[in-house]
Specification:
mainly beta
Length: 183
């Protein structure tokens, strides 16, 4: 569902997936995802916020893989193949982005936070909280051509279960550049 009015917009979404995981008693349970995004984009100012809740949609291994970007080993062990992290998880994430256009330049700052992912059956913290910051800018050469540049940093908390015997944090840093042309 989408609502738009005078620079404001809000999007709502919900997903219900039957038989996605099993509870402690072996019964099939439905996964749920609820999401809201809202933003203001008018008069050179952009402010956006979003939040998401998911229960039972994916295992802790799959959730952790989103953060590792194919660097999935710790001391030679694949951290996304831990049998103790096959349990489905509950996760809550939120983000905010702000940007302002000065002539042809639009700098932006985004911050995201995710609370610890806990097993739906055990309640055990399987993937610790995360924080992410992205700083970027877009420069318009013309109506149709822009250059983009972004730098990002993400860190998972130190209580993330990497292997059955080890916990630790995961850090990622990235830089991207791009050129966009609309035909």
């Amino acid at each position: 569902m989408i609502y738009e009015n005078n620079g404001f917009a809000t999007k709502l979404g919900y997903g219900h997936y039957k038989g996605a995981y099993t509870n402690k008693d072996g019964k099939a349970k439905a996964a749920q995802i609820a999401k809201i995004e809202s933003y203001y984009d008018k008069d050179n100012l952009f402010v956006g916020v979003g939040a998401q809740y998911a229960k039972g949609y994916e295992s802790a291994n799959k959730y952790l893989a989103h953060f590792t970007d194919d660097f999935n080993t710790y001391k030679g062990v694949d951290i996304t193949k831990d049998s103790g992290k096959e349990e489905a998880v509950k996760v809550v994430d939120a983000a905010v982005t702000v940007g302002y256009t000065f002539g042809n330049l639009t700098p932006q700052l985004s911050y995201a936070h995710g609370w610890a992912a806990k097993g739906v059956n055990s309640g055990e913290k399987l993937v610790d909280k995360f924080d992410q910051v992205v700083v970027g800018a877009k420069y318009k050469f013309s109506k149709r051509t822009s250059m983009l540049a972004h730098a990002g940093y993400m860190k998972l908390g130190s209580k993330t279960r990497l292997t059955p015997d080890h916990t630790g944090s995961v850090e990622q840093k990235a830089v991207s550049f791009g050129l966009a042309h609309k035909f």
